[in-house]
Structure prediction request, 360 residues.
Amino acid sequence: MKFVISVLVGFLVVTISSAVYVDRFDQIEAAKKSNDKVIVIRNLQVPAGVLLDLQNLKPGTTLQFEGRVTFGYKEWKGPMVRISGKNIIVEGKPGHLIDGEGARWWDGLGGAGGKTKPTFIELKLDDSIVRNLHVKNTPVQMFTSSFCNNLLITNVNLDNEDGKSKGRNTDGFAVGLSKNVTVQNSRVYNQDDCFCCGAGSDIKFINNVCIGGNGISIGSMGNNRVVERVEARHCQVIDSFNGIRIKTRKNDKALVKDVTFDDITLKDIQQRGVIVHGNYPSWRPTDDPTDGCPIKNLVINNVRGTVKAGGANTWIWLANGVASGWKVSNVNVSGGKLKLPCKGLPAGIDKNFQERCGQI
Ligand SMILES: *[C@@H]1O[C@H](CO)[C@@H](O)[C@H](O)[C@H]1NC(C)=O
Ligand SMILES: *[C@@H]1O[C@H](CO)[C@@H](O)[C@H](O)[C@H]1NC(C)=O
Prediction:
């Protein structure tokens, strides 16, 4: 599958090697071993219940998706696709689609029961770029980046709009145990967190649109994990369960430091516009938060928009001393009529913000 054109000009040999195409599943291993720098996954049908194994790509590989990539149906845990390597470009060609055809698994129960549903794409990439991908209708979790360093994800469209009534736990971009990962200029239409980060540092979520899901989230924090230097900026969260959120598990330990939410527009949020709570998995003031996860130097600036009448605009529910060094400014989230008591706001926080929380 390799075409080499060698041009001899005096003593100079110029070698132009073309791409290797994979349109049958049994061609993958050979493609990974070949010396072509470009691997094109083209109109591939992945058999049921097996991994599309794009791991350990040679450094410098460009992995392209072309046409429609589909998967057989089986109840299993997945992931359906794994991509790993260093100095890799992963990109979609115009018109391509990676189609999970998730409706075959969707039963309204997500990861909590019913059919066993495979997670979809997992990345473990260093010094790499992922761009221009179009992913549709995944059974559950869409796009997970774990143990990644220096990764840029740009212009990736995660579209589970068809899962509106039956898709669940279809988290969009999950980033964990990673350093220096940026997700930008992307769009997620799903039924769980649009973006979540449960461990890592120097993680950015910039200029993205989130529709239908559960907003932009840090956590759930526990297990002594650390999240530091995370920024979400210039994003819209539309028609979603929550807007922006930090959740830490009750009776567990972790650390959240230097998180910034800046220039976030919320629209038609159903439950909480801004929520920071230390009693996860509860998301109501029914039980007390615990103090094992300090939340230091949180910045919430220029967060504005609307919550539906049945929800609460802002809700902070933390044990005393957990929050420190917060800066809250220009927050105007309105429309929610539910007044929830707040707890554990640090001293000196914006007065309007405190009042919107309601009183204990
Ligand atoms: C962070 O990752 C990007 C690629 O997304 C890279 O260009 C940049 O140099 C990295 N920054 C550091 C400090 O390593
Ligand atoms: C807050 O936003 C609402 C509409 O979303 C607007 O009517 C109100 O004037 C804004 N308040 C401030 C202080 O900007």
Remarks:
- Residues 1-10 have pLDDT under 50 and may be disordered.
- The first strand starts at residue 4 and ends at 9.
